[in-house]
Amino acid sequence: MKILIIGFDGGTERIFRQFDMPFMNGLLDDNAAPVLEEDLLNRGWVEILSGVHASECGAFYRKALCDGTMNWGDYKFKDLLSNDAITPLWKIAEDHGDRVGVMNIPTTFPAPRVNGFFVSSTGAGLFKLSGIPQDFCWPKSVAAELEEMGYRVDIRLTGDVRFSDAGDFVDQLSTMFEKRVQSYIALAEKFAIDMGFVACRCTNLLQYALMYEIERYFGMQAVERQCRTESRREWDALLPEFYERLDINLQKLVEAISPEHVILVSDHANVAYLNKVDLNYFLREAGFQKGKIKIQRSLRAAAKMLRSPSFRKALPSAGSFLCAVPEPQRSRAFSLSYINGIFINDRERFGGPVDPAEVESLSCRIIEKFNAHPVAMRHAMSAEIYRPLFEGAAWQDNMPDIRINYPDTMFFTDEACAFVRPNENYGPVYDISKIVPMYTGVKGRHPLCRFDNHIGSLVHAADPRDLRLVHRVVQRFYDGR
């Protein structure tokens, strides 16, 4: 094999370095390391696959539909496949006569026809599956082979997923990657592929759930370890076990495939999830939005939040269980969950009250108020113009007019019921049955990216320092052969 790209969802070098992972750390030490930064409005995996910014392919985490409403939609894989201006990563290899093997890259459904094999993954609106449907694979016959090998598509931390205990949680995640590696090795040999791309989802799942425990583990001193309760000491053993098994299976993959070149990459990092940010709350407070009140939490959720010391300190009022929904005709601006940005509610895109000619001046007024707000300043947040920077881009209209710069440890939601409040879940994880997606961990802006020295030599000084870089160096690798 010429190139093997190994992706780790949420893969974070800082975390890998802290655990006993000799094979992984050997790869990290031996490879070139460009420092990349994502704005976290774009889907990182799609940047790798397409080589373009979301403004050119629509791959935002949340995409405003611009259909005369404030509704949003998910990115669809067909948006990439139907774009003639984009050469998907695997097509670069195919155009040079090579066979490819792609497995488990999030947001890739249904599987396209390729010269080799393609196994889709979940994401971008597809969250759970029963078994492995045929249109999840190319050729379709691969689905039955994966079933026989015990392949598991994904584990999503939703209400219908159950773990008997903490050990079962870690074991299921580790086994999922183990089966993925076994399946990939078997298919790579069967199809005699020349270029491969396989992704590991289990890192993100564990780190979203247990970032508090990971940070606590890193910060422990020897004396402190002796004072932990039994349930806390359980993670002290299970976390090293998870990363040790990850390293063992990574070594099996690389040694079995024996590629000439290896690229390690992730779609984003994982960091501690400390605070929630509600930009709609700020907009209402600043007079740019009107909202209708709705109850957003069950009595059980309310009781849990009231028991949380961090929440009681930050928001003692019962108003935290209410959420305001922006009124379309009375709101001049709005935001969406997952989006660190603000949309001007103009008449052309969203059917709102703002004249398109006033968008720029209104954006400037919002930015001025945001940057002067004491809460924004206290939390090191700042606002800046965003959408006008992408003049002429295919999906420019769907982009937020304003981008918010912020510390990695925040998540943007429309249900925080305060401008900024602590994440009530950030703390010791005693009960694995209570975890939900992004529980104590959240996306970080610096993804893992490692090229071996030859691939690294193909990086140009003018290249963007984001995940589009991976697509560019693979293109140059093939063009130069």
Protein model, in words:
The protein is α/β, with parallel strands linked by helices and 481 residues long. The protein is 38% helix and 16% strand. The chain is built from 19 helices and 20 strands.
Q: Alpha-carbon distance between the termini?
A: 14 Å
* Secondary-structure content class: alpha/beta
Q: How does CATH name the architecture of the largest domain?
A: 3-Layer(aba) Sandwich
Count of alpha/pi helices? 19
Q: Per DSSP, what share of the residues sits in E-state strands of 2 or more residues?
A: 15-25%
What's the CATH class of the largest domain, please?
Alpha Beta
Number of domains: 2
Tell me the overall shape.
globular
Q: What's the total count of β strands?
A: 20
Which quaternary structure do these chains form? single chain
Largest sheet: 7 strands, mixed
Indicate the percent of residues in helices.
Answer: 25-40%
User: Widest sheet: strand order?
Assistant: 6-5-4-7-1-8-20
CATH topology of the largest domain: Alkaline Phosphatase, subunit A
- Give the averaged pLDDT, no decimals: 90
User: What is the radius of gyration?
Assistant: 23 Å
Uncertain segments? 310-320
Provide a quick synopsis of the model.
This protein is of the alpha/beta class.
Keywords summarizing the entry:
19 helices, about 40% helix, Alkaline Phosphatase, subunit A, seven-stranded mixed sheet, about 475 residues, 2 domains, four-stranded antiparallel sheet, single chain, alpha/beta
